Amino acid sequence: MTNVANTINVEPPKSQEIYSDTGARQILQFLLRNITVVISPQSLPTDEITYPQLQSVLGEHAAEADSILARMAAVGVLVETLADKVPACPECNSKQVSIRYLCPQCYTFDITRSFLFEHLKCGKVASDDTFRKGTEYVCPKCQAVLHNFGVEFRAIGAWYKCNHCNNSFNATVQSHFCRPKHHQFTPERARLIPIYEYRINTRILNEIRNQVLVYGDLITFLEDAGLTVSAPYTIIGKSGEPRTFDLIISSKGRWGGQKTVAMDVAQSESETGPDVVREFAAKVRDAKPTSSYLVAIPTLTGDARELAKNLKLNVVEASSLKDAITPIQNLTAIKELIA
What we know:
The chain has helices at 15-20, 22-33, 55-58, 65-74, 128-131, 205-224, 274-287, 302-310, 321-329, 332-338, and strands at residues 2-3, 42-43, 49-50, 78-88, 97-102, 111-119, 125-127, 132-133, 136-138, 145-146, 153-162, 168-169, 173-178, 184-185, 191-200, 228-230, 233-236, 242-245, 247-252, 258-267, 291-297, 315-317.
């Protein structure tokens, strides 16, 4: 099972982390088959925001859709568009918020609303219950039986009466009520939570196709072999500093304990230089995984290759990540974990 680990120093997520995340990969695979689809939010009767299009895509992890989509948008894999803003409780952040209409004198919500009717002929204005007699409407002033609403009589507004203090008024005070925790607050204190809809970023469609499908194939192969894949994963080194690798592949040893293979994928437009090799070597020396590999896409420079040799680093070079999958699968350290 793929785990996405939190690094100690919080940084914006890398697109590579998204490509290796199981949920994100499932969403991208869905969108690659449906390029024009917009993933739209839906509010449930409980005011919970869901993304029903992802229900079957994510299965039991559908409840995590909101956070996964946000992380994908943060690295530019998805494009987010504001769909709505909803009020939320300033105390507990719940979106299960109701509007309450209150008496402006004692601020209770126990009020009764009635409509004000006007008899157009005699000008009598009174509440609708005053006009109503049984199944008919009768003017309380001139006793005329009224038949045609809008012609003989009309509604000219609403009138409220407080059942607690007997105050009568024509306008209420509004407040919000948090249903889960019973917090009551004014509209001015309400938090406004943005709700987004998402679509795939067509500007980097080729990158998404290459990365999510290929990188996902590698992780799927390793997981299907019974290994645990964490991408990325942070190991606290002997120095006490966090050392983050793109992939940590692990399996319990036959006689107990756990073996780990640490891997970094260095991708560049041309060649990877010595600085990347030095950084990887420093992480490996401090974190001390069982085995380690630097995957260089497309290749190392001559100086970097010589440095890796002197530092006794294991290196996989390939023209693309797709071409690197087979060599990685055939690594001795990987085969030993599977065995």
